[in-house]
Specification:
395 residues, mainly beta, Immunoglobulin-like, 3 domains, five-stranded mixed sheet, 4% helix
């Protein structure tokens, strides 16, 4: 029987809960999560926040900035075959203007290194918005193994007009009582932006506010942020729409960005929750909700060995319950790691496992694996938890 460690916080407002969830008693969750609400329950998607072993990134010039017809592109990378870097420059929706190659400069194989390439587009008759793609290919099949891109204004004095939302991220859970909206923008008239929050299903505007681009230059590039409150039930899908307002009456909005988020979905109860990683094949299905629902009937699983379970309970006034599970499994295994949670009358059955529906070569060792889970906000404080067949003891 597994033992449960319990930390309880009395919270008056949900806003206070956000701060309490990051207190010393409960370890800060390093994951980035997004969500998809289905008719049957909730899909929780965990994103890897660690730098991948194989990557390429453009550091300079800055995205959306102005350059001449000749300039240098540079960046970092790691794990590229023979350090090969390919740079391609094209007009927006048009012809390729330049293609060149360079080599990653690194002190050791698989270490992070730097790369750069001088680009000369020749004589450009006018200001030319361009798109730069930087990538590296696999020697086996020529597929792209690492990629990055930026947009620039070539042969220009000023950068491109743009709006880019950086928060919330796609599918992220957000609080309706005070949502923080952040991003980058450039070329806005008097540096002003409009931010709308709209119901995803009905497109009704739930809230509207304004933001100012933080730049010393009129029409310059910089960050923006705003706080928005609106009325929506947990689990509601919303669109965050940020745009540069039209200067004259009758003009259409040309520069904007839009992002999808979900009003904090864990502020309610679900009968079933499926936790998957961002690269899980389930998320590539044509009908993600139906495919994820079928996973609850999957019998081709390899359960992890569970060593310890810590439960963090926060009262709001009903409990929102989070778990940290210390488990062990194969150190090298391409089979998807999943967790399915079934709630029957406040009795939670949790299964942490590898999906073995498809053949996968896994090592036979047991490496430590930490799974952080949430059961959602429960209807009452009386509940039981079973993890991989073992009852979690409540003190």
């Amino acid at each position: 029987m597994l033992k449960r460690s319990l930390f309880t916080f009395l919270l008056v407002f949900l806003a206070v809960f956000t701060a309490a969830a990051q207190s010393d008693e409960q370890p800060e969750d390093p994951r980035t999560l997004s969500f998809q609400v289905c008719d049957w329950g909730l899909i929780v998607i965990e994103h890897d926040t660690e730098q991948p072993a194989i990557f390429i990134h453009i550091d300079s010039p800055a995205d959306y900035s102005a350059v001449g017809s000749a300039f240098t592109v540079s960046g970092t990378g790691a794990g590229l075959f023979e350090g090969n870097v390919i740079v391609e420059v094209s007009q927006f929706g048009g012809d390729v203007l330049f293609t060149g190659t360079t080599v990653l400069q690194t002190e050791a194989v698989d270490a992070v290194g730097t790369w750069s390439l001088d680009i000369d587009l020749g004589e450009l008759a006018e200001v030319t918005p361009i798109f730069i793609r930087v990538y590296s290919e696999s020697p086996e099949d020529g597929s792209t193994v690492a990629y990055d891109d930026i947009r620039l204004n070539a042969n220009a004095e000023f950068g491109l007009r743009y709006v880019e939302l950086t928060s919330p991220r796609f599918g992220e859970g957000v609080p309706s009582f005070l949502m923080q909206v952040e991003g980058m923008a450039g070329g806005a008239f008097e540096n002003n932006l409009v931010i709308e929050v709209r119901d995803f299903a009905s497109k009704d505007v739930l809230a509207e506010t304004f933001a100012t681009v933080q730049t010393e230059d009129v029409g310059g590039s910089g960050t923006f942020s705003a706080e928005v409150s609106f009325d929506a039930e947990p689990g509601t899908g919303v669109e965050v729409y940020a745009y540069q307002p039209a200067v004259a009456d009758g003009e259409e909005v040309e520069i904007s960005d839009i992002e999808f988020a979900i009003v904090y979905p864990l502020a309610r109860t679900y009968d079933r929750i499926l936790n998957v990683r961002r690269d899980d094949p389930i998320l590539g299905a044509q009908d993600v909700c139906a495919t994820a629902e079928a996973e609850f009937d999957n019998e081709n699983i390899m359960p992890l060995v569970v060593n310890d379970v810590t439960v963090f309970e926060m009262i709001t006034p009903t409990p929102l319950v989070n778990l940290s599970v210390q488990a062990a499994g194969s150190s090298v295994c391409p089979a998807p790691l999943r967790t399915r949670i079934t709630n029957t009358d406040n009795a939670f059955n949790i299964e942490i496992y590898r999906d073995t529906s498809q053949p996968a070569a896994c090592t036979m060792d047991l490496a430590p694996i930490t799974q952080r889970l949430s059961l959602g906000t429960l209807p009452n404080p009386d509940y039981t938890i079973t993890v991989n067949g073992e009852l979690v003891e409540v003190e």
